[in-house]
Amino acid sequence: MAAIAVLCVFGILLLYFPEHGKCREGVPARRQWVGASWENTYDGDLTFTCPGENQAISGLYSQHNNAFEDRQFRFECSDLPGNTQGSTWNSNYQNDYDMELNFLCPFNSVMIGMQSHHNNDKEDRRWSFTCMQVPVYRLADCVWTDYNDLDADIEVPTLDNYFFTGARSQHHDHAEDRNWSYQRCKLKQTGENSPLYILHILKGTMARHTAVAVFVLCVFLLLPANVAPVAGPWVNGYHRWFGFSCDHRNQFISGLFSRHDNGWEDRRFKIECRNLTITPEQYGSTFESGYLNEYDAEVDFECPSHGVLRGIQSAHSDWHMDRNWNFICMEVRGFCWYGCTWSAYNDWDDDVDIPTADWHFITGARSHHEDRYEDRKWSYQRCGLRAC
After folding, report:
1. In the structure, what pLDDT confidence band is assigned to residue 8 with cuts at 50, 70 and 90?
2. 40 and 183 share a domain?
């Protein structure tokens, strides 16, 4: 199997790159500080958007003033690699005064703006965000910053090719301040280093048509058969937020494994993705459900328009000992569901095991919570995909 894979790769590269011998190097981001002044006054509104059309927020600095019981902010924006700007999206306010904030930009988007309004009675701010899609690129190596200490400075320095994609915060009345953590993700080209992406970006010649045929043949030679258990690392820690998405746009969630811990009263998850042999022209619209359930409430979700699940996000509440859930689906043009089945519900505190099966992908999820066990029973819908 390894020998087939090596021969496939060399065959495609030789056919597709007869005149090239040098790999394309990454594009560094150019840094730009946005002014020396603060973007807001104490107790004043904040409205910030990166000045460049092809820029996103890459750094942030904030200091707290105990007299005003408020913060000032300044931001740093960096150029996005290439000409990557897509559609923009403005959130509504993501928190009430004195309440928790937990925000992520929609799927495959980076943050280009923040807005905030201060309330003197509450000595707190409400926050909204502006995000922009980045076509041809995907988010990778996402990390959350450490929470700041109360009343202390916040400093998130710019890193090359990393951009803000999320924010979490909790308010503390005794300090009249917030702890903040920001998520930053690296931008990588969709399918970077994959034959599918290579076939997509280059113009066709006879040699390249041959490369397409070689690639399709290799896919079928290398496809795993039958049913396989889900392997790999856990995608979350206990009581921690997590956001998972398949690495490439032609990959979809095919299997899932979860284990409950009675000490933590929480679950960890392993999620597996598999390739679907499609061309970039078959990439359809992406749908994000938003957080579907209140804590302790039911989940009942199906991807719309015969879409397939390719991302899952979840936030944990220590108070409720439960999670709420956000699902990300993508439509595959020219493919429809068939033979859809719902898995049997797991028992309380037992493992959830949805093994991977050939050409079957997860398209829906149902769940209900039980306070006695502080656990959820889960059922997942899996569908076969075929041309329609």
Report:
1. low
2. yes
Complete DSSP assignment for 92-149: -----TTS-EEEEPSTTEEEEEEEEEEETTTTEEEEEEEEEE-TTEEEEEEEEPPPPP
Say how far apart CA 174 and CA 156 lie, in whole Å: 25
63 burial type by CB count under 10 A (0-12 exposed, 13-18 middle, 19+ buried): middle
The pLDDT of residue 84 is: 72
Q: Is 370 a domain residue?
A: yes
DSSP code, position 44: S
Q: Give the three-state DSSP class for 13.
A: helix
Distance between CA atoms of residues 244 and 285, nearest Å: 19
Do 263 and 147 lie in one domain? The reply is no
End-to-end alpha carbon distance in the chain: 32
Overall number of domains in the chain: 2
What global pTM score does this model have?
0.48
DSSP string computed for 48-100? EE-SSTTEEEEEEEEEEETTTTEEEEEEEEEEPSSS----EEE------TTS-
Find the domain containing 44 and state its range.
32-189
- 172 with 305, same domain: the answer is no
Nearest CA-CA partner of 44 in 135, 119, 146 = 119
Domain assignment present for residue 201? The answer is: no
Say whether both 147 and 257 belong to one domain.
no
Question: Are 38 and 185 in the same domain?
Answer: yes
